[in-house]
Every structure is written in C-alpha cells, then in structure tokens.
Amino acid sequence: MKFDKKMLSHTLSCLLIGTLLLSAAGCKGQQKNVRDITAKVSESSVSVSDRSAESVIQSSVWTPSTDHSSAQESKPSESPTSQDSEVTSAESQTGESSSAASQESQVSESSLFSLPDEYRDNGIFSDYYEEAYRYMSQMTLEEKIGQMIVAAKPAEDEIDLAREYHLGGYVLFGSDFVGKSKEQVQAMTSTLAASQKIPLAFGVDEEGGTVTRISAKPQLSSHEFQSPRELYKNGGMAYIQSDADEKAALLKELGLDINFAPVCDLSDNKNDFIYERSLGQDPETTGEFVRIVTEISQSKGVSATLKHFPGYGGNADTHIGLSVDNRPLEEFRNKDFVPFRAGIQAGAHCIMVSHNIVNSIEKDIPCSLSPAAHKIIREELGFTGLILTDDLSMGAVAKYSGSRSPAVAAVLAGNDVLLMSSGMVTDAVESVKASVADKTIDEKIIDRAVLRILSWKYAKGMM
Fold first, then answer.
1. Total H helices, total E strands in the chain
2. Percent of the chain with pLDDT over 70
3. CB-based contacts of 136: which residues, under 8 Å, 6+ apart?
4. How far is CA 53 from the centre of its chain?
5. 219 within 8 A of 184, measured Cβ to Cβ
6. Burial level of 419, CB count in 10 A (0-12/13-18/19+)?
7. Structure confidence at residue 103 (pLDDT)
8. What CATH code is assigned to 122-459?
C-alpha cells in the first residue's frame, strides 16, 4: 500500500497539534492545583501564627504538647537528617540540663538561707529574722562568737581588738568621755562603728544619781542627771518623763545604742546596796516608771535594758563577791517580776541578768549562769529580745568558771550578749570555740543568740 506523502504529512501535523493542546491543558490544571495548595498552606500558616500568639499571651510557661499528629504526618523530605536530629537532641538535652541545674541551684540556695521554723517566735525583732539569718548563714564560727561579746573599750588598740575578734560592741565608761567634746565623742563612736565589717554597738550606764558616765562631764551635759528616786520624789512621773526624754536624746546624739537602764529593782531599805539606784516605790508604781522610760528611750533610738533580773532586793554588791537570796519564787513572781513584766510589755529590747544566787530558781548558781533563770525570762515572762549578762569580770562569777572562761557557762545558760572586760576577750573566744569543738556547746545555741543580735542591729538601722 502506498502512502500519500501529503496525507501523511497532514496526519502527523494534526497529531502534533493535538498533543500540544493536551499538554497545555494539563499544565493549566497543574497550575490550578499548585495555586490551591499554596493558598491552603498560607491559610494554615496564618492560623498557626494566630494560635502561637494567643498561646504566648495566655501563658509564659512552657508546657509539653500531648498532640503528636503533626510530627507523625511529617513527610520524609521535611524531616531533619539523622545528624541534624542528634545535634538538635543534644542541644535540647543540654538546655534542659542547664535549666534543671539552675533551678536546683536556686532551690538549694533558697533552702540554705531559709529561716528554720524553730526560730520563728513572733518576737520584737522577728521582722528582720529572714535578713539576719541570710547574713548569719555566711558567717564563720569566730565571727558569730565575737558578735556575742560586748567588751569594755580598751584605752588603745580598740579597732584592732574589735577586728581580730569580730566584737559585737563596746561598753563605754566615764574615762572614755573625759576631756572630749560632743563632736569628739561622735567621731569616736562613728569611726569605731565603721571600722568593722558588722558595725559595733555602744552601750553605757546612764541611770542618773550615782551612775552617770556621761552627764557628769560638764562639756557634754548642762547638768548631771538625777536618780529615779530623786526625780520621783521631786516631781513624780512628769519629772521621770522629762528626764527620760532628755537623757535618750543626749545618748542618741553621741552615738550610743544602748542604755543599761532603767533599774527595775525594788528596795525600801536604806541599807540595801541597790537602794539609791532604785525608784523606791511599790511594784506597780515601779512598773509604770519602767514603762515610761522604756517607751521614751526607744522612741529616741536608744535601746532600754531592764535590770537586774530577777530583782536585786536586799542583796549585797556582786561586784566584789557572792550574794545569796533565799526568798521563795512566789515572792519574786508577785513583786520583783512586776516591773520586768511592765518593761517587756512596753517592748524593751534588752534584759540584764544579775549574778545573784537565787536558790528558789537554781541552787548555788548565779542567775547570770543559770539556765533556769533564763527559762523564766523566755517562757514565763515571754521575753524575745536580747538577754545580757552583768559584767562577767565581777567577783561573783569567778568561782563558777572552772578551768574555762565564764563565757562558756553564760552561753550555755542562754545569754545572747556577754559583757566583760577587754582583758577577758581572748580567753572567752577561745574557750567558747573549744567548747563547740568538744560538743559542750551546740553551735545552734550560738546561732540563735546571733540571730537575735543581728536582727536587733537590722531593726536599729545599723546594718
């Protein structure tokens, strides 16, 4: 069969044109499909973006998703390579590990500096316990022991002594004010306080009458303060109030932090050692005197000290020897404790414990070294402030110290602050350290005392 060349050529042209037309139609369909798919992906992206923004607004805390459908539906071509997966996984694990370590560190630090429940007592300085505890937690044992010691200021090298033993403060006596103007006293207290890591506190006995360390110096005061007995006799509580106001203002001006007053002791016998220093009135009137002096003094920024617990009565002078009191405990509760209760209710910062031996409290042990006496102060009278010893260099405590400093017995009894001569400091610190090392003293006893001391300093704005 012969083919007609013209017919063959025509036929091939028709087939070619048809093929091209079909191809063009197919491309248009594919383009339409691509546009549809692109639109759907775009809509999906917008939707995901909206949900992500909403999620960020609702919560800033990441929470793991429980919907794994998007991961299961991923195409192989969209998945990371095996090597990329390992890197991503490693980075994720490193990030999670770092985050966990950071959280663990924060928890550990928080636990380390968190105030133990046993220290929470709603005390007068309790608003500062947390801050004080954080500071104390970073102190050495030597620093903590030093804060418990308030020594008589030595005539020289006072900065070095305080720095070497981390002393809590100094007691100033009349000799420290001789020949000094107000400006010189201010310079002395401010320079000493600022020379230490933890500022020193300064205390003084300015009772009036026979005990006037400051007002007896004419360059510091226009007149010498009278005793409470004289003030009350001449003008009643109005004179007491005026005197307390003037006295506290002077001490504050000079940079003093504590006045070892008021005297809470009851005495109506001229032969008593404490007679001239006491108000000389009944327990209730004496309690009112104590309340007024405490409130005024502390309103001026000078901490009051209720002394001499549990009440001196008719006892002898413990500066030179023993004094034994055989009165029953009920008598103390009904009489001698009354002024102390008034001072505690007024918010007194400090109580000083005498060296008197009160056999009804603890037989043959000075109250300053008696755990039973301190238990009464804390539990029966509800006092939460600072408990101070009377001067541990007094003759009344010498025979009870044994081979170690009386500071050890004073710490064990429950004192927060140990008053002593500067010559006793080295032995006191070394003895207390040794007693902690041999487990005679539990370091927690020291911690509790230092917590109160630092809280008091924070409360007064010293730290």
1. 15, 12
2. 74
3. 144, 447, 450, 451, 454
4. 45
5. no
6. buried
7. 54
8. 3.20.20.300
Which of 377, 218, 390, 210 has the alpha carbon at shortest distance from 310? 377
Return the active site residues: 319, 390
215, 250 contact by CB (below 8 A): yes
| 3 state DSSP class of 375 | helix
Q: Is the sign of the CA dihedral 19, 24, 27, 29 positive or negative?
A: negative
- Is residue 235 within 8 A of residue 202, CB to CB? The reply is no
Q: Which residues contact 150 (CB under 8 A, 6 or more apart)?
A: 167, 168, 169, 170, 171, 201, 203, 388, 417, 418, 419, 420
**105 has a pLDDT exceeding 90:** no
Write out pLDDT tens, residues 107-128. 444 556 789 999 999 999 999 9
C-alpha span between 435 and 409 (Å, rounded):
10
Say whether the peptide bond before residue 80 is cis (omega within 30 degrees of 0): no
Q: Name the maximum alpha-carbon separation found in the chain.
A: 163
d(Cα 232, Cα 238) in Å, to the nearest integer? 8
pLDDT at residue 56 in the model? 32
Statement: the pTM of the whole predicted model exceeds 0.90? no
Residue 318 is predicted with a pLDDT of 62
Q: What pLDDT digit, counting tens, does each position of 388-404 carry?
A: 999 999 877 877 776 77
pLDDT at 297: 98
Q: Are 227 and 276 in contact (CB under 8 A)?
A: yes
